[in-house]
Amino acid sequence: MRECQIYSEIHPFDISVEKVKSLSPKGIIFSGGPASVFEKQAPHCDPGLLNMGIPVLGICYGMQLVAQLMGGEVTHSKRREYGKAKLTLDRGGELFKGMGNKGSQWWSG
Fold this sequence. Notes:
Blueprint: H1 17-23, E1 28-30, E2 56-58, H2 61-69, E3 82-88, E4 102-108
Parallel strand pairs: 1-2
Antiparallel strand pairs: 3-4
């Protein structure tokens, strides 16, 4: 986000809804990490963060958490995937500016 000249802050997973509201964010990103929503000690945020009326993006573990908190079902995959993948961009936009339309990326799923 910062590389796109978008102001952003990093906060711990247990930040309160009140604190987030006081910051007046335009959106929230729940990042990835090594945890799984199936683990008993996995970090969980206040579900109220999802009801603030602002966009929420979940990445990796963050997406699992958002899905679970919104009543979705997260299931185990038969295989884990990680590594280099080919990427083809079929749309433009500021986020991808200067990247070209093909490249290699590291990902996990």
